[in-house]
Amino acid sequence: MQKLREHIEERWSSQMPFVAYHLPNATDVRCFFPKDSELHYLQRYDEAGFIFSSFEPSSQPIVFPEVTSKVLKFKLIDYEVESKSKFRIKENLNEKEGYLKLLTDAIDTIKADELIKIVVSRKISAEYDLQNPAQLLLELIQFYPEAFTYVWFHPDVGLWAGASPEFLAKTYRTQFKTMALAGTKRAGEDRDWTEKELDEQQIVTDEIVNGLKKHSKTLEVSERKTDKAGGLLHLRTDITATLESAKLGDILKELHPTPAVCGLPKEKAYKYLQANENYDRRFYTGYFGELNMPHHNQRSSRTRNQENQAYKSIVRASNLYVNLRCMNYEDGKINIYVGGGITKDSIPEEEWTETVNKSRTMLKVL
Ligand SMILES: C=C(O[C@H]1C=CC=C(C(=O)O)[C@@H]1O)C(=O)O
């Protein structure tokens, strides 16, 4: 772990780009250390590297290319970081009033039959002196081992960090997996899921299935289950497809942004957010992760012979997550990004509380 800390500290103090991340329940921490500090944008989805994409559907992701980066793995040995978090952000009444107004307007717009669902969000800002991104990452991993935790930095963009519970795309050969995640309650809350929550999650499942249908030979939709994400619970459905021949880039264009982060109908909801949300989401609710990275695959022992090595194949796989439960750090300030799905049955005060609960994921590690 010491080596990992040293690498990150060195990149951070010299203001060189890096990403260090932990895949759900992985035994290692992976890093990309680009050799230059130029900002590279992805040209084609068959390139390999770590991508970081904004919410804006037509934007090109930033890429730390595999070929021009040092790609390292560090074993995650038992460690405990002392969490000294006493950081609190005082509730700002003006902010609350503004957000309640936005929520009321979104509900009215839906009731006027203009939209079915809108995922509205806000940014919580506070002064903060971020000394040590390595410490931040290790705390994220310690508290949220089942999430995709990361710290990403580029001098032209700033530092982003998060603990995402939602994957957008996992590919392996022709297999494609995604999930529909929506509906939120606190982990201790002893109540059934409401109609509103079941409804907002079903909208996500249906829209993903519709989008994938035309690209897939087979399509499997799991039972809906409850999934834990830090101190919160969500409704989750897994969707698995065997792809016809569609390219990952086309499928991402089809899916992103899903109604888990934007709304339905998609274009109308996006326009609504552009006109009413009153801040720039940037990379919040975008997607990020490994694109076409080598995945070492050992064939089963029955097919092995003495020339064992010949049976080891390297397949390239992608592992992309939605940038949720995240923050960025810039000019001595942190911004935490939180939102929630609004339908005709939403209650503004409850939606406000949901964003307060979601902000605790990042507050815990500050
Ligand atoms: C938009 C967010 O969460 C999404 C994912 C899971 C549950 C959600 C919800 O219950 O509203 C949101 O759709 C966020 O965490 O900022």
TrEMBL record:
Lineage: superkingdom: Bacteria
Chorismate-utilising enzyme C-terminal domain boundaries: 96-358
Protein name per Swiss-Prot or TrEMBL: Chorismate-binding protein
Source species: Psychroflexus salinarum
